[in-house]
Amino acid sequence: MNPATLLTLRETYADRLQECVPLAGYTSARIGGPADALLSVRSVEELAEAAARLWQMDIPFHLLGAGSNVLVSDRGVRGVVLLNRARLVKIDSQAGQPSVYAESGVTLNDIAQRALRLSLGGFEWAASVPGSLGGAVYGNAGAFGGEMAEIVTSVEVLHRERGRESWPVEKMGYAYRSSVLKRERQPVLILAATLKLAHGSAEAIQAKMAGFSERRRSTQPPGASLGSMFKNPPGDKAGRLIEAAGLKGAHIGSAEISAVHANFFINTDKTCAADMKALLDLAQKNVFKKFGVTLEPEIEMIGEW
Questions:
Q1: d(CA 301, CA 305)
Q2: What's the CA gap between 286 and 223, in Å, rounded?
Q3: Going by DSSP bridges, is the β-strand pair 163-168/152-159 parallel, antiparallel, or unpaired?
Q4: 91 CB contacts (<8 Å, ≥6 apart)?
Q5: Which backbone phi and psi does 96 adopt, to 5 degrees?
Q6: Which residues are designated catalytic?
Q7: Helix or strand run (H / E) with residue 147
Q8: Which of 272, 242, 271, 235 is nearest to 259 (CA)?
Q9: What residue ranges define each of the domains in the chain, with the CATH number in brackets?
Q10: Which residue, of 3, 12, 47, 144, is most buried by count of CB atoms within 10 Å of its CB?
């Protein structure tokens, strides 16, 4: 980063700005080289202010929430990483259609647990899903038959040119594990979202959440991973195809295709991003060679490759 630019950021953000920060400690896979600068934001106001300033200064930046579903390169990230710690949650439990407004840095489990305490359901499937709300809204996260597209009613965004806007869910252009923002890479940040919930029995909601958590524990591997590596192709499962290609348990360096579920790649011991990427490429190559199916990554790769 240009020294003069970095000096301006230091003067603006003081001790909130950290420099040359390894990102491995901020990702679920425990992988990632250094960011030129890391700036923590604790509200949508701080997030909007920082993003607007960085856009105005023409400084590249990435937004990082819980760090799941991202593979950060060993060479790291140039510019600024905004660490999203905006976690305000407001629940309207009295309306006929209860709802929750939450800032994009809050975890899905936090929302689900808060809703449970008010006997509100509709979000049980998300309780055991790693990740933050912003990433889930961006990528239409889902599990156990549920997905964000079904419960999002509106999304508060920051547009580089137009400022803050409220988008109805229809504008998100949701598809399987995708949105218009993910497909088109628009200059837009997700600040917050409003989700619809449903009145219910706390006991029934908790039982459903416990059931989903147990299914996840019994079918998905423990350890440091990025989450699901690939989207499921139409009519099939990415994990089944990778296993059928003979790759279950395969490894490159300390990166391993899980012997429990082949669509999860595990960091077994200080794995580097290059090895994880090589394993991803190997799975794509072998599945295409054997089945003629091109696996599309569900994860996002950021940084210098």
A1: 9
A2: 25
A3: antiparallel
A4: 98, 99, 100, 101, 114, 115, 118, 120, 197
A5: -60, -35
A6: 177, 228, 298
A7: strand 146-147
A8: 242
A9: 3-84 (3.30.43.10), 89-204 (3.30.465.10), 221-302 (3.90.78.10)
A10: 47
Cα–Cα distance, 88 to 189 (Å, whole number): 17
Quote the tokens at residue 54.
Answer: 């960085």
pLDDT of 261:
96
Residue 13 vs residues 38, 39, 68, 219, 266: alpha-carbon distances, Å: 11, 8, 26, 44, 36
**Token pair recorded at residue 239:** 């994990």
What are the backbone angles phi and psi of residue 42, rounded to the nearest 5°? -115, 5
Strands (E), 27-76: 34-41, 61-64, 70-72
Report which DSSP code applies to 240. H
Largest CA distance in the chain: 58
Neighbours of 294 (CB within 10 A): 10
12: helix, strand or coil: helix
Of 138, 157, 159, the closest CA to residue 149 belongs to: 138
Q: Specify the pTM.
A: 0.92
96 confidence band (pLDDT: 50, 70, 90): confident
The pLDDT-based confidence of 260 (bands split at 50, 70, 90) is very high
